[in-house]
Amino acid sequence: KVILKKKKKLLLLQKKEWTWDESKMLVMQDPIYRIFYVSHDSQDLKIFSYIARDGASNIFRCNVFKSKKKSQAMRIVRTVGQAFEVCHKLSLQHTQQNADGQEDGESERNSSSSGDP
């Protein structure tokens, strides 16, 4: 699950009233399995984007963000890329375990149906 979040921060105005700084709130939230692509802009390294499938409509959506520092954008892209790798490895392990389980089940059926005591 990838959550892009900004810290909530209250600002004190001149009249001593508190207000929410909307630039510090949750911006976007998508589970990692719905994200298909992530990258930073080659011209402006502060800009990064990702493509995700919307859970309700099944439509692909491209989300583009600009960070204050290029290091932030690059770190986000790298982190999501690493999450992709982990998910892919887990998926391969799960597939292999299922295949091994099916092979074990087939060999048990074959030995019991052969009629040999």
Describe the structure.
Residues 22-89 form the PID domain. InterPro entries: Adapter_Engulfment-Domain (IPR051133), PH-like_dom_sf (IPR011993), PTB/PI_dom (IPR006020). This protein is α+β, with helices and mostly antiparallel strands. The protein has one domain (2-113): PH-domain like. It is 38% helix and 27% strand. The protein has a three-stranded antiparallel β-sheet, covered by helices on one side. Strand 5 and strand 6 (47-53) form a beta hairpin. The chain is elongated and about 60 Å long.
Quickly name the level 1 CATH class: Mainly Beta
Compute the number of strand runs: 7
Rg (C-alpha, Å): 24 Å
**Number of structural units classed as domains:** 1
SSE arrangement, N to C: EEEEEEEH
**What ranges have pLDDT less than 50 throughout 5 or more consecutive residues?**
none
Averaging pLDDT over every residue, what do you get? 79
CATH topology: PH-domain like
- Strand residue content: 25-35%
Notable traits:
single chain, two-stranded antiparallel ribbon, 1 helix, 38% helix
Question: Outline of this structure?
Answer:
It comes from Mustela putorius furo (European domestic ferret). The chain is an alpha+beta fold.
How do the helices and strands line up, and which of them pair or pack?
Blueprint: E1 2-4, E2 10-12, E3 18-20, E4 28-30, E5 35-40, E6 47-53, E7 60-66, H1 70-113
Antiparallel strand pairs: 1-4, 2-3, 5-6, 6-7
